[in-house]
Structures are given as C-alpha cells and as structure tokens.
Predict the structure.
Amino acid sequence: MGHPTTTPVAPAPRATFATLAKFLPRRAKLAQRLPDTARTLGISLASMAVFLLVWQLSASYLYGVEAEARIERTTQEQGGDAGAEMAACIASGNVSCKPNTLPFPSEVVRAAGLLLADHRAIRAKKAEFQAETEAVNAARSAQGLSAITYTGRPSFVDQIGTSLKTVVVGFLISLLIAVPLGVVIGLNNNLRIAFNWMIQVFKPVSPVVWLLLVFMIVKTLTLGSDTDTSFLISSISVGLCAMWATLVNTSVGVSSVNKDYINVARVLNLGIGKKIFKVILPSAIPMIFTGMRITVSVAWMVLIAIELLAQSPGLGSFVWEEFQNGGSDSNAKILVAMFVIGLVGFLLDRLMFYVQRRVSFETVVA
C-alpha cells in the first residue's frame, strides 16, 4: 500500500500580510503624523501656486518688454509699415518673430513633453539599429572583432543618465580620497597642522581649474590611446571639487571623538584597526555623513560646468547646445533641464539623509 502524498500548502495570505505589516508604520503613528503632513503639504502646494503665478506674471512682463523693443527697433530702422507688420507677426504667435525671453510655464511643460517624445523616438531608432546589426555583430564577435554600436545623438533622458553616472563615480572618488585621509589627519594633530594649509588653499579652487589640471594629467597618461576620456576627466574633476567637505568633516569628527571611548579602547588593548572601525568611525559617522551630503550637493552643482567644458554627453552639454542653438523652444528646454537638475539634486540629498539616519545612532536633522 503506497504512502499518501502531501501537497505543499502556500502560506495563508493573512500570515503574509502580518509579516509585511511589521515593516509598515502603525496606524497610531500615521494618525499622529497626519495633521502635520497635511499642513506641510498645504503650505508646499500654496507656495508652488505663488511661484507659478509670479513666474507667469514675470514671463508676461518680459514678453511685453521684448515685443515693444522689437517693434520700436523695426519701426526706426525700416519704417512704420514694417513696424506694424512686426506687431502683427508677434500677435499671431509666429515663431519667426516671437520674443526670445523667459518662457511661460506652459511652454516649459510642452518642451518637457517634446523631450520625452524625442527620447522615445531615439530609443526606437536604437532598437531598430540593434535588430539590423544583430547578425553582423554576432559574426564580428565570432571573429574577435568589436561590435558595431549606435553612434546617434543621445536623448535628454540618456544625458541625465550620463550625468548621474558621472556624479556617482566622482562621489566614490571623493570618498576614496577624503575618508581615509580625513581619518589619518584626525588621528594626528601634527598631520592636521601639516595638511591645513593645503585644504585651505585648494578647497576654494574653481571647478574649471580642476578640470584643466585633470585634463593635463589624463591627456599625458593616455597618449596614443583612442578611447574617449571625457567621462573619466569629468568624473575625476567632480570628485576633486567636491571632496573637501567630507575631508574636513571626517577630520573634525575623528579628532572630536569622546576621549572616554579612546581610553576604553586603550584599556581593552584594541589594535589600531579595531580602534578605528569599532570606536572612532561609529562615533564620527554623524559628522562624516554631514560632509558626504555636502559633497553630493557640490558634486551635482559643479557637474554642469565641468561637463560643458569636458564635452561629456551629459546635462551640461545639453544646456550649452540648447543655448547655442537659439531655437524657438531652446529657452524652455533649458528651464526643463534646470528643474531636472534641481529635482535630482534634491533626491540625491534625500537619499544621503535616509542612509545617514539608518547608520547613525544620533538624531539626524533633515
């Protein structure tokens, strides 16, 4: 007689929900936070409405000033009939005579839609190119040759991705330099004095100067190479510009660790490695993360100028190309980039804030 078979039973949905509920905020806490959240949301929405109203009125005023100046200049140079034609052309909304000034909010929204549509079109072209070259690339790969890649212009979304990669690599470079060096400086008062002049001299140096210095070095080290070094130059320049806040805060955090903790470590005969990782760094984490948050903000802020000069295909190049283009919607696209830059910078700061709150034992102020 065969043994009865048993069928595995899936966990009950209620048990699964109970497990997930542990990670969700409790109803009591949500009820306590609701009034403050509603108040914060209401104030934020009201301030946004005021901002949009001021923007709309400013754009209208500047549009009128530019239109009147253009009509007056045309009238003086070509006569009254030409001035009347210019006024009629501006009133019709023709892009050929449209005043080139601060765009309206609606124009910025329209430009954002055009950039997204352009991204979808470029993505479709890339997919089509990859499908056409798939067989050829497979044959080239079998022969040990490099694949044929798409060389068309990047979309706005692609350029955002390039800028984010540049900032991430630059941020990691700054951490690799600033945190170890800051710990060493913070542990030794003589080293702190020795490095102080260097920090004070190089900290205020312009990102353009750092870019030129990095360009000199990378150009020399990559002589004879055909690889594109713009991304490498941009990343290193961003890291060197942004590392100083982390370096200073790490040094100060390490040097200001409670002496009682150091004495306990000495009593326990902890080695230098254990003393640093078990005592000093945990105590200095709040200061270090404050410096890291500043470093991220500075890295994202200097990125545009660095990408512009290094010709890296990121947001800096996008802004400069639109400025040089001078098209009817170029100003609106530049403002789209401005809002994207601000929003991404805000999200990066929030990300660092939540990471800091997770790893720090002290209360973190937003």
